[in-house]
Amino acid sequence: MIRATLSVTAAVVLLAACGERPQVLEYKQGTYQGKPDTPAYSNAPFNGNKGEWEKALATRNQNQNEYKRIR
Amino acid sequence: MARMKFLCDAERCIECNGCVTACKQEHEIPWGVNRRRVVTINDGVPGERSISVACMHCSDAPCMAVCPVDCFYKTEEGIVLHDKDLCIGCGYCFYACPFGAPQFPQLGAFGVRGKMDKCTFCSGGPEKDMSKAEFEKYGRNRLAEGKLPACAEMCSTKALLAGDGDVLADIYRERVVTRGKGGEVWGWATAYSRPDGAKSGAAPAPGGAPPPAPGSKS
User: Fold this and answer.
1) What are the CA-CA distances from residue B133 to residues B124, B136, B139 (Å)?
2) N or C: which end of chain B has fewer CB within 10 A?
3) Which of B8, B122, B129, B137 is best to mutate for the A interface (most A CBs within 10 A)?
4) In what helix (H) or strand (E) does residue B141 lie, and over which residues does it extend?
5) Which of B183, B203, B216 is nearest to B7 (CA)?
6) How far is CA A8 from the centre of its chain?
């Protein structure tokens, strides 16, 4: 009888943790509440010409590679 | 569309703080605010390394996730910006950021916490491009002028690179392959080797080290 009681008590203690739920918060990305912003190429000097703007940045990007600059 | 990123080559950075100065000068940043700073690891010990750190414009930015007023947004180029008119200066973003990028101006004698200020990748904020209001709140908008961030463009050793992440990875890979070392800091195998081994010309050596330089004895 004592053995059975001890076994049941031990089982209850050991299995108690199985019912625990994770207590870590789940972060959810919020939605922006501020003022709208325009794309960088929308004003002068590019006036909405996205291709020209990307080309200008790509050229400057490659200027950082001196292996290309000195060849 | 390009995904804008910064990359600092620790083998080239000479801790001159030129990037910090360029940033402060370009945006007329007040005392006590450092959008960019140079961090030195093992300072004074032979083999010390320095890297320039600012907002890394995270793909999954923790500052955006924790902001209680949702004042952060991301441009189509992947630049993380915020609206200072909405910011309440609570400082949650500072605790969430692993790089310590958000800065809080200390206004007045009692150190009242101001609106958060951080690196904008020189692309201003939610005001009319290149307007006075934009400059006063967020600094100069170099991206709208077709230029890259001032810190990277004036870096004398070209340790600090800015621009399209894929192009930066190509530039960095070429450097590491040419000099045969220095890719370990950022994890060559994880970040800069292509699965097909294209362009680099050689596959990375086992253990994550970059391949030896052409002509080098090993």
Assistant:
1) 10, 5, 9
2) C
3) B129
4) none
5) B183
6) 46
Query: Could you tell me which residues are beta bridge partners of residue B117?
Result: B103
* Helix, strand, coil shares, percent, chain B, to 5: 25, 15, 60
Residues of B in contact with A25 (CB under 8 A): none
* Interval A29-40: pLDDT, tens: 678 999 999 999
Exposed/middle/buried for residue B98 (C-beta within 10 Å: 0-12, 13-18, 19+): exposed
Residue B8 bridge partners (DSSP)? B160
Phi, psi dihedrals of residue B92, rounded to the nearest 5°: -60, -40
Closest CA to B148 of A41, A49, A57, A40: A57
Q: Which residue has the higher pLDDT, B83 or B211?
A: B83
Q: Which amino acid would we find at residue B215?
A: G
Is residue B22 within 8 A of residue B150, CB to CB? The reply is yes
Mutate to test the interface with A, among B72, B73, B172 (most CBs of A within 10 A): B73
**Helix locations, B71-213, DSSP H:** 92-96, 132-138, 150-153, 165-179
**8-state DSSP, B144:** G
Distance between CA atoms of B107 and B32, rounded to whole angstroms? 10
* pTM score, whole prediction: 0.80
Lookup: tokens for B65? 């996730």
Dump pLDDT digits (tens) for A9-25.
Answer: 988 888 887 777 777 66
CA distance, residue B109 to nearest chain A CA (Å):
30
> Is any Cβ of chain A less than 8 angstroms from the Cβ of B166?
no
Strands B112-113 and B37-41: unpaired
